[in-house]
Amino acid sequence: MVASPILLRRIGIKFARSILNRHLNPEQRLWRAVVINAFDETLISQSDRKASLIKINAHNWLLSKSDDFRVVCEYALLDHDDMKECYEEALSKQSVFFTKRQVAWKEYDKFYRAMLSEENKIVRKIKRKEVDQFRKKVQELPDTIISTIFVSAFV
After folding, report:
1. 34 in any annotated domain
2. Beta bridge partners of 99
3. Cα-based distances in Å from 123 to 107, 109, 111, 113, 137
4. According to the model, what pLDDT value does residue 44 have?
């Protein structure tokens, strides 16, 4: 279980103190590594489709009130409310940020999944053309940081 100094610095001292407990058994270290990995994924700066979706999914998971997140934190001997608070604080300090293109890839993904779920082949073909146009628009977007702070999950 290794947390990079960059991650510890950007997320904050409270996070660092919570994560860096040396007296853990191997299973607790494994679950702690899952939490660290999610935080690390939110720092992704690439804006290609795959990286953007990984980043947004990690963001959504850390902000979720899901049993999944709570259980992982419990297994890691971490307070899920503290972890969520650390992440929200990093967002408010803009240590974690999103670009226009990263957010657009999430919208594209919803559009793409809707096209895939279409059962009518003719309608799917029409939607495929729309998806292709949407992809081109996303790729042409500037990779500039959005100043808005996202303290809720992307839907």
Report:
1. yes
2. 145
3. 20, 18, 13, 14, 21
4. 95
The position carrying tokens 């709570």 is 70
By three-state DSSP, how is residue 4 classified? coil
Residue position matching structure tokens 């590594």: 33
Tokens (6 digits) for 102: 């990263």
Considering the domain boundaries, does residue 149 fall inside one? no
Q: Are 101 and 142 in contact (CB under 8 A)?
A: yes
Q: Are 108 and 153 in contact (CB under 8 A)?
A: no
Token pair recorded at residue 14: 């409270």
The phi and psi torsions of 31 (rounded to 5 degrees) equal -65, -35
Q: Which residues span the domain enclosing 53?
A: 5-96
Would you state the structure tokens that stand for residue 45, as one six-digit string? 């700066």
- Model confidence at 108, pLDDT cuts 50, 70, 90, reads very high
Number of domains in the chain: 1
pLDDT at 41: 96
40 in a structural domain: yes
Q: Is residue 41 situated within a structural domain?
A: yes
- pLDDT, tens digit, 9 for 90 and up, residues 25-59: 999 999 999 999 999 999 999 999 999 999 999 99
